[in-house]
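Input structure tokens:
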């Protein structure tokens, strides 16, 4: 996943600096229907944190002035990734944030990665943006040869784009999610499913990426 390509650069986004007031931030957010804005240093090069509209509204309800620095309600000061961050680092960092700030390796501010753009990046990384079938197969967690067996079966008919596994801690069963190359025909898919189930693996679902693609 290329974080640089997925991110929106600083010059293309709205932000405030430490010199701006909460009123300045609120005006920008209301005009653009934003939930939050990045706060940068006065030079516009260093990331400081985020300011959220909801916290400004609470201040208004409490009768407090908005003519103070945005840093009075600075949040997420440690929530950021780098342009060279890995997929897993990004997953754990962005979580439920509407966006996450992206820094260059020298810690200067590069831009933001929105949740939507990150989702699209995942779809591309897992080849879900290409038409094809996706199998979800259940296996015992202690069955160390499951992926090898299933891969050999699939390899007789088509190639594998991606494999993702997850474990249910309550049952100790693994879900193996495999996306197949787009050249796999329905007839080949049927043979693959049949042969996998003959090996006592349960095919939980067969999906087409068309039905799960992002609009």
């Amino acid at each position: 996943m290329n974080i640089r390509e997925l991110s929106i650069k600083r010059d293309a986004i709205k932000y405030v600096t430490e010199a701006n007031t909460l009123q300045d931030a609120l005006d920008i957010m209301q005009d653009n229907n934003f939930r939050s804005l990045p706060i940068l240093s006065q030079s516009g090069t260093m990331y400081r944190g985020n300011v959220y509209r909801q916290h400004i509204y609470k201040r208004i309800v409490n009768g407090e002035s908005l003519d103070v620095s945005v840093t009075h309600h600075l949040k997420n000061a440690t929530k950021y990734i780098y342009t060279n961050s890995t997929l897993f680092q990004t997953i754990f960092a962005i979580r439920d944030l509407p966006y996450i700030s992206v820094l260059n390796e020298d810690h200067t501010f590069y831009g933001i990665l929105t949740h939507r753009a990150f989702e699209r990046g995942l779809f591309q990384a897992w080849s879900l943006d290409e038409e094809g079938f996706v199998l979800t197969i259940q296996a015992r967690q202690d069955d160390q040869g499951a992926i090898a067996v299933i891969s050999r079966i699939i390899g007789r008919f088509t190639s594998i784009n991606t494999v993702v596994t997850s474990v249910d801690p309550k049952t100790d069963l693994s879900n193996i999610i495999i996306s197949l190359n787009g050249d796999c025909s329905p007839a080949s898919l049927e043979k693959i499913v049949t042969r996998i189930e003959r090996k006592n693996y349960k095919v939980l679902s067969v999906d087409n990426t068309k039905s799960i693609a992002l609009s």
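Helices lie at 3-6, 22-32, 53-61, 87-94, 115-125, 146-155, 186-198, 209-212. The first strand starts at residue 8 and ends at 9.
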